[in-house]
Amino acid sequence: MSLGTSVDSAETLVGETSTTREYASGGLVVLSFLAFAVGLLGLFQYLPVDTSVAGLPVATLLGGSLTLVGAGTVALGVGSYTGALDSEPSHTGGLVSAGFLGLIWFVVGGLVGAQTLGLSTAWPVVALLTGLAGTGVALLAREDLGVTVSAGSFVLLSGVVVLSGLVGPGWSWDPESFSIVLTGLVGVPVIALFAGLVGAWTAARVYGGFGAQGRQTGAYVLVGTNAAGMLALLAAVVGFIVVRGFAPMTEGIRYGLFWGPVTWFNPPLLDSWVIVEGPIVWFYWPFVMEGYGLNTPIDGILPAIVGTVWLVVGAVAFAVPLGVGAAVFLTEYAEQGRFTFLVEISTNGLWSTPSIVYGLFGLAFLVPRLGNTPSLLSGQLVLGFMLLPLVVITSRESLKSVPDEYRDASAALGVSRWETIKSVVLPAAMPGVVTGVILGVGRIAGETAPILLVTTSSPFPSEVTNVIQGGFRFTGSFPFVAVPTVDLVQTSSALPYQLFAVIGAGLGENLDFAWGTALVLLLVVLCLYAVGIASRLYFRRKLNA
Amino acid sequence: MSESTQTRDDAQHGDEQTTTPATSDPSAYEDASAGTTAGETDEQLREEWTQYAFEGEPKLSVEDLDVFYGDDHAIQSVSMDIPRNSVTALIGPSGCGKSTFLRSLNRMNDRIKSARVEGSVELDGQEIYQDGVDLVELRKRVGMVFQAPNPFPKSIRDNVSYGPRKHGEIRTGLVPRLLGRDDSGAEDDLVERSLRQAALYDEVKDRLDDNALGLSGGQQQRLCIARCLAVDPEVILMDEPASALDPIATSKIEDLIEDLAEDYTVVVVTHNMQQAARISDQTAVFLTGGELVEYDDTDKIFENPESQRVEDYITGKFG
């Protein structure tokens, strides 16, 4: 094993390949991790604890594994203490570990005291006593005994509670003075998650043979399990939306490939048309290619998608040049003092201002001045105002992190400050600036409140807001070209607003349209991210290639 | 374009470079801030120790130069004439103000907010500390190479052509190409010539478009020298150019400095006394408190110094 500790460091530099302790504790780590994973699946109802796997209810399996892990770690600890197993324990489990275990036992004691024993006001006494016992054992006994007994008996207790059905699938808990009811479908997975984490950590410490190596292994497993849990949580949230939104989103997709006229033209001096035929791919996706109306087979959300894209494009076009310019001035030109400090405070404050406040400002100030109607332009400006502080903050940070050596080197070559900023400082800061814009776009693309106030009229438009009207074309009269007109003073829908409207429209249990919209919103934001990440990679490669 | 209204807060950075150098012996530094370096004897400075006679007009002429960082008096009334087409070494213990002195020769101290300069520095008889001095022109004529190699995160070619390009002497890119004024050929010539002068061309000729940060430390420093040479300066200031490099890279830089002295006036700050003895024609010794103690032929300084303190310093009794 790569983690192989030197079992007898006094005599051998390279530890034996593995020992009984490593086999046993390694198995317990895996078992704990499995309990953690099953708990996570159970919590998100992918594998509810009242289902059966291989003839046994999931709850029983969880309880059994936790019991095994708890009993096993205690046994290994005792084995190490009596000298039956090789290890290198410290004389104490460590203050942090002991405090942490004390906290766990405090909670256990509190719950038992208040709920099981029914003590009304005396439960803190029980909690304090168990907490002190948990801390004391871990702190005062030698590490191998203290940590395994304190942590292992907690895992053992959790396992027994679940295994005996004390907290089983049918269990429900209605805590006084809280208006929630906790059922076994939630309670068992939560216990499994927590006890699994503690069990994995303890078993990993045993695996490392206690001491410094044991703490290292324990921390590694704890952090790793934690990271895996975070990723799983993220995947569960996204999966939740994808599972529910995929069917409504893809409803009615048709496609085909057929032979047909690709282009046709009338050659001069020839009184007939030439038609070129070729294969044509035909693709129809009503949910994202249609509006909401009676004459479409399936109601779609194209107007909202277009609206969201216009809003984000407008906000970025407004905020990024202004924000980067302000950051350049503040970092490269302005005297660092009270003024820049004040600007820093106020940009931080603006970034944390609730979006509905921006929306109200837009409604009261922008809308009356921009056509006196809710419009895309007002929405773009309001979202731009929201994006601006983040662009300033992140751009300032990345400009500050550009080494002064670059500026010195450039100045020593007699290059003016503006040229230096343009050709050395800004390119070096670009990846950071783009990161800031990516973060900001993620926020404003999902913003509902300001859009509700300043941009929308109807939540379910059937037509796309026609921002660019008339194409670029040549005309017969002066000036012989016609440029498209851009009309931003029109109402539009947007994906988050539409989502809000669907949910608020009282469609009851059938939220298919909402899930489909949510999935499309997620995909649109991901596409914007992809553009941002690609440009960041481009700028970074230019610096490091 | 005047940088006297310099506002960017790089005071800290500058102070670090010039007033709090890393001494291997902390107690020496503490003593230095109190007055003298440990082991340094007191003695009166004599004017004639810094009178160095040479033929011809001086390239740089410094008269009663004082530099202050806030209340800190970093350079005390230094006067010295630097002859053209030679190597002048500035040596002295850490914190004695030799880097500060060097930076005041092309007004890089203007970039430090708290720095204040009094006195006179003349380049070819023209005062550089007067109103209306064009800092762009000054720094084109008096180039600088820093202690740590600091190439830009650009290609080797772009690093070398950066100065001329920004000064409008070389035009490449889409617009000049469309206007028929593309100087790509001239750029290639300039890059090759500068890299050859810096003894780097043969090592990088096949990868001129690679990022300069991929070069080794010694190569990066020679690239910085090439970048400095590309703007065709008359004086090159070097602030401990080899202190961050290994012995082989150092010897390459030293050879290079000696070659450069045929066409350029080189002023080099160094910690390394053997290096000063090897490469320089004349040596100025700065000692604690920012005073110029002795300035003479390098051989004279190293073999028969007038000042007891200089002798102590050179023989390694302190510093």
Description:
- The complex is a heterodimer of chains A (545) and B (319).
- In chain A, 64% of the residues lie in helices and 7% in strands.
- Chain A is mainly alpha-helical and 545 residues long.
- Chain A has three domains: 20-92 and 141-246; 254-289, no CATH class; 302-507 and 515-544, MetI-like (MetI-like fold).
- In chain A, the strands form five sheets. Chain A has a two-stranded antiparallel sheet with strand order 1-2. In chain A, strands 3-4 form a two-stranded antiparallel ribbon. Chain A has a two-stranded antiparallel ribbon with strand order 5-6.
- Chain A is globular, with a radius of gyration of 32 Å.
- With 319 residues, chain B is an alpha/beta fold.
- In chain B, 36% of the residues lie in helices and 21% in strands.
- Chain B has helices at residues 11-19, 26-34, 98-103, 135-141, 156-166, 174-179, 184-197, 201-204, 217-230, 247-260, 273-279, 298-303, 308-314, and strands spanning 58-69, 72-83, 87-91, 115-123, 126-127, 142-145, 235-239, 265-269, 282-287, 291-297.
- In chain B, helix 5 (156-166) runs parallel beside helix 9, helix 7 packs across helix 9 and helix 9 (217-230) runs parallel beside helix 10.
- Chain B is globular.
- The model of chain B is unreliable at 1-35 (pLDDT under 50).
- The chains are: A mainly alpha (545), B alpha/beta (319).
- Chain A binds chain B through residues 331-336, 403-417, 419, 423-424, 427-428, 543-545, and chain B through 1, 3, 7-10, 13, 106, 108, 111, 135-140, 143-144, 146, 148, 150-153, 162-163, 166-167, 210-211, 213, 224, 227-228, 231.
